[in-house]
Design a protein that fits this description.
Two copies of one chain form a homodimer. By secondary structure, the first copy, chain A, is α/β, with parallel strands linked by helices. Helices cover 25% and strands 28% of the residues of chain A.
Chain lengths: 643, 643
């Protein structure tokens, strides 16, 4: 084990942050810079702002009407109105305008009766200063407008400008140097048009994500060139960064216990390793350190880990540098759609989809792999499971930090079930044609989708389950698995299922009968409609699955089957023609199958669902679906059965 | 009434917005522009984004460890470990790195036992693809990454860059031309250093506030020069704006029923007046129109009205132009601290301070005048009272739209009561010395402060109520008004009360006895400590209040008394020396009085309160207080009584 650096003393995140803050205390507050007031929104005041003029700066009309001397109006009543002469006892005035000399009240326009160009009749008297905003009513010269450490908002500009604060002192923006490390990484800018990666190359994107997050915190990111996994090179880059007088240095990757992870060692050798390893997941390999009295944070390389570590450590530090505190997260109560186990001793951050199905706001856990960058894009929330819990049980209410607006969630149609490429087109068309309705889809196979309807975690299930007895799709499965749960079944498409093979068919596969020969097969998971179909075909043809090389090798989507064929992991897999076409593979048709949308009858009248069905019937949708190849959308949107 | 344009047919805000949206329908969606991916956060996709490469693009290690061929590990157990040769059967690999040719599994570093530089012992077998992220596990070439009309977030950059979307098409930013109108207005930029306003001039700030709000909505504001209140000039400016092909034109002010309000007339003459007057308050005079098929919105000139009208009409329109929907407001349940009456038939937007006192989140209404720009800065929330309600009763729970973070509210100490300038210093010092603790203060006079404690709407009351029988401050009032409600009383300062007079004392006032002569007095409101003191002095000296010219003329703060003297509204007023000094008035000392902080005993151990008391004891606070003049902070922070 000598080559492994194990983080022996993991800290819990709160303790870790305290250690870091204490090190760079008492207050690592940045110096001030003076900026024009119009640039001040979102900046934080570095000194108190005092009014240089009063507001209003003169007595002003608070209404549209006429300015008068109150004493001139005394005695006027409905029965005994008074006539005032314009230009003498009365002067027209508009809201906000300065009161003329010698006048001390305003009579509202609506209460006047204008006799002619020169005279106005009034039928009640005014009192002094009625409908007048007196000098300093809002604030008075020398008064405090804002204390220091106040974050300026757009409407504060009115107070600042009105108070004569045309320039003001705000905290300088923190400068954060980001050093991406990893010999395998390439900068996407160097790839330009061509997307051809050399063997072993990986596109670097963490520095871009972190830059954008850093800007959100009001700080300036500086991204350095990617550094190879060599101790000297990383050390050099770190020292260069420190010489540029940053407020924080972030080193990305190289922070886990792997063989080539030099960051912790470098910080220990050249400075002070404050924290190495935090009891959070993802984000465990985070490093907090001090080199030459500059704060250095080592961020794990997996994008999700990087995001979590950023939120836990970088974000609070950047706000503190500016004399402010981290804005609170938007939270929502959610109900777990299924058990979510969690490791004791680690605080887990579970990404979830969130949907409102009926009256429940349901959280559906996404795959946990920290390497999946799309789970962050797909996630609508994050559930934190504290380190002392072994998880959350299905149906339990808990808080989720929202990554999207709650209104967006209420506008989301959750489609779970079998994977089909036309759902992507549906998703795009619904975004195009509606005000903010979105589709969130999860691939769990046809059967999984039907069960999700029953559990109340989806609005729609996508299904293509063949009843091998009757040759009919979906109905018998619905009757069996959704007993007593009425549903409407709408056609979405019929599509070509068949064998996806490499371009040019090097293994000379002609049909399912050839799969027992010298070819590597890639299968779909049990419960998927394609697996049902494949097993049925094998049975029909009397082929024993054990004779197929790779039968136990499972993928979860058509596209993943196609990609396995494309890159040679397998020679052949079963899937839809559109997947083969998308990846430029060849295809041997086997069967035309029916893919339906199954919708609980209780939800079918929901306007969102109706809009979705309308879109499946639209010309544009059908045209795009046809373009994929292997699809027949002739019956898209037809109500087929009510079960 | 012929000169008054009354908005006869006011629309409710929902209907008004519908009329406007329908006019510029079906979808006023902006064309696309291509931008580099790094500039895409917050922008909205104009077309679907498909993956150009798979992610991962090669089989990659999901763990740090060694890459192996699973078949080489078969048979390894705890009892019968296997030795693998590095460089042959095993290769060191780090998370995210591409798998070497011929390897299909990774064994975690933690499970290895390294024998020497060349050999590693394993004690369990792997299965194919264990700890490997296969090509396309995250997404596959041609897959939909984002539909159109998706707003890009920082972590979406990982998906975009990983998918090869280095440029993408987003909606062009809407261009909004802002035309401020008003002959009284001056551009603050022309004032530069000097703040000397000519008679009748008012500093224009609405265009700055609106620009900043427009930027928040992802649009580009263009602010035109201020236009005089002349119909031809406004018309010219409007046509110039329309010729520049804007997506929206905003005309500020000139939208109410006042005499010089030309905007509605111009829109009616030159185009189509869709809506004139909306049943909201503030914001009633809003205008929605169409000139040459360009949308034009007339925004009222009062800053608060402008803000409300912006939120109701401009914000949703700008989001719609970009193919998105308006983000939901942050809401919080609050309890009304007192009755809030509201006009039937108008939807009222009440600005409120929000404080957490004990377990209740309490909303305290701010003054309603739409002219007070600071009420927006001071407001922590807005309560909407629907048009069919006559108001909200004290203690009723309702929703408030939050203008600050809920965490900020929880960190706020609410001080209500008598106004004192040292509270500004306390507010600034606490922002300087703590992590985000804020003071929110309301001036309602000493007695009002004590009552607020009892009602649970404040943490601290500032009080200087003289018991004229005993000569002692505050105690007898507390005993009377806070019976059975235990409090701690801390000294804040002693201060000089006296007469504030004009510089050079032109009226030759020597003391209170001279107030019955030919001078104009300005008084404080009943319930304020200063009023109690003044009335006591009059009584002591046997002066009948009716003999004092201006006795009924009331102001609410020391500073407003001083400003009334400064600008000649009054010759003399009673107030603290610091106010006189701040505004360069002269001052005649009458009495040294005691100003205390009264804190419910139940709250006194709250760490926030303790921090505040610590700060009143600090050298820095005392030094700054002394600098104001007329203050003695020697006993600041001393616990004086527990009652």
């Amino acid at each position: 084990m000598q080559r492994q650096k194990i983080y022996l003393k993991m800290k819990d995140p709160k303790e870790a942050l305290e250690i870091f803050f204490n090190k760079f205390d008492p207050k690592p507050i940045l110096e001030a810079e003076e900026i024009p007031v119009l640039e001040s929104p979102k900046r934080i005041t570095a000194e108190p702002v005092f009014a240089k003029v009063s507001s209003p700066s003169s007595h002003s009309a608070a209404m549209d009407g006429i300015a008068v001397l109150a004493e001139d109006t005394y005695g006027a009543t409905e029965r005994n109105p008074k006539i005032l002469k314009i230009g003498q006892e009365a002067a027209w005035i508009n809201t906000g305008h300065v009161m003329p000399e010698g006048k001390n009240a305003v009579i509202m326009a609506e209460k006047l009766n204008q006799i002619d160009e020169e005279s106005i009749e009034i039928s009640s008297s005014s009192f002094p200063w009625q409908n007048v905003r007196k000098v300093g009513e809002d604030f008075v010269t020398t008064e405090l407008l804002f204390p220091q450490n106040h974050q300026i908002r757009p409407f504060d500009l009115g107070t600042l400008i009105g108070g004569g604060a045309f320039h003001l002192k705000v905290r300088r923006k923190p400068r954060v140097v980001i050093i991406p490390t990893g010999s395998e990484l390439v900068n996407f800018n160097t790839l330009s048009g061509s997307l051809h990666l050399k063997k072993g190359e990986v596109i670097e994107s963490n520095s871009s994500i972190l830059s954008s997050l850093i800007k959100e915190c009001g700080a300036d990111p500086i991204v350095e060139d990617i550094v190879e996994d060599k101790s000297e090179k990383i050390t050099d880059a770190l020292f260069r960064a420190i010489d540029s007088a940053p407020d924080l240095v972030i080193i990305i990757a190289g922070s886990s216990a792997g063989r080539k992870d030099y960051t912790a060692q470098i910080i220990e050798d050249k400075g002070e390793l404050l924290v190495h390893g935090v009891t959070i997941m993802p984000g465990k390999p985070t490093i907090l350190g001090n080199v030459k009295e500059k704060p250095v944070i080592g961020i794990p390389g997996y994008p999700v880990s990087a995001y979590i570590a950023f939120n836990e450590f970088v974000r609070p530090f950047l706000y503190r540098l500016q004399g402010s505190i981290t804005p609170l997260k938007k939270l929502s109560k959610v109900v777990a759609s299924r058990d979510i186990p969690s490791k004791l001793g680690l605080e887990e951050f579970i990404r979830v989809n969130i949907g409102k199905v009926g009256e429940r706001v349901v959280a559906i856990p996404l795959p946990r792999g920290a390497g999946s960058v799309t789970t962050m894009s797909k996630a609508e929330g994050i559930i934190r499971i504290p380190s002392f819990l072994e998880g959350i049980v299905a149906g339990e209410e808990t808080d989720a930090e929202l990554l999207v607006d709650l209104e967006d969630i209420f506008n989301t149609i959750v489609i779970i079930g079998s994977h089909d490429i036309t759902l992507d087109i549906l998703s795009d068309e619904i975004r195009k044609n509606t005000d903010g309705i979105r589709i969130s889809s999860g691939n769990v196979g046809s059967l999984g989708g039907l069960l999700a309807l029953k559990k109340g975690t989806a609005h729609i299930a996508g299904s293509h389950l063949l009843d091998t007895q009757t040759g009919e799709y979906n109905t018998s499965y619905i009757s069996k698995y959704l007993k007593g749960f009425p549903v409407h079944v709408f056609h979405l498409v019929t599509r070509e299922q068949g064998l996806i093979i490499q371009k040019g068919n090097p293994k000379a596969v002609k049909g399912i009968e050839d799969l027992t020969h010298d070819v590597a097969f890639v299968n779909r998971q049990p419960g998927s409609g394609t697996r049902v179909l494949f097993d049925y075909k094998l049975h029909e043809m009397g082929i024993d699955p054990s004779r197929i090389n790779g039968y136990e090798n499972e993928e979860y989507t058509h596209m993943n089957v196609a990609v396995a064929v494309l890159n040679g992991t397998a020679d052949v897999g079963m899937g839809i023609m559109a997947a083969a076409k998308a990846l430029n593979c060849d295809f041997i048709p086997i069967v035309k199958e029916q893919y339906d949308l199954v919708i609980p009858s209780a939800l079918v009248d929901d306007p969102k669902i109706q809009l979705l069905i309308d879109i499946t019937r639209s010309k544009e949708f059908r045209k795009r679906v046809k373009g994929l190849g292997g699809y027949n959308p002739a019956k898209s949107g037809d109500l087929w059965k009510i079960i």
